[in-house]
Amino acid sequence: MDNIETFTKKEKLYSTSDQLGLPMTSSQSIKLEKDYVNYHPCMESLVEIIDFLHINFADTRTNDILPGYIQQILSELKREDCHINTMIFFFKLIVNKPEVFEKYIHVFFPLMLKYCVAKNNGGKGFHYFLRDITCLLTNYSPNLDYNKENVELISNFVNYLIKISGDTKNIIFKTNLSK
Length: 179
Fold this sequence. Notes:
This protein has 179 residues and is mainly alpha-helical. The chain is built from 9 helices and 2 strands. The chain has one domain (4-178). It has helices spanning 16-20, 43-57, 68-78, 84-96, 98-101, 105-117, 128-139, 148-165, 170-178, and strands at residues 4-8, 29-33. It has a two-stranded antiparallel ribbon. It is globular, with a radius of gyration of 18 Å.
């Protein structure tokens, strides 16, 4: 876990927790993977806000009604002109907080699969972010609806993974197969 950095809220001068009036304890911290997306200045605060919303309002909704913040993220990702950076940011948020999005993974699933097989998905080959999304989707695959559209998306996704998993460097090839 050497690629995980802990951001301790106590060390921050201005914390989202403070601004929301949340109690802050010395043990509160957010663990985020060290990568370019998580270094975005909004990511840590957004993770804190998502946690707050999930903790305080998650049980007030039925399964049929998506919370407002989930609806907003979903509507942004569904836009035809949604920029690749926006998709990566929101998908990374989902990867960072899988326990929050687990209940709603079925609505993000098709969008994530389409992103993964897109020509421009943020990298070449089986890059780390594609691996993160693959692991997330694999973990939550029992919660999915296997309708005709999703089965086709899964098939395209698996074909794509097979196509890109090979690498000329032996160590990368072995890593791709072992994860």
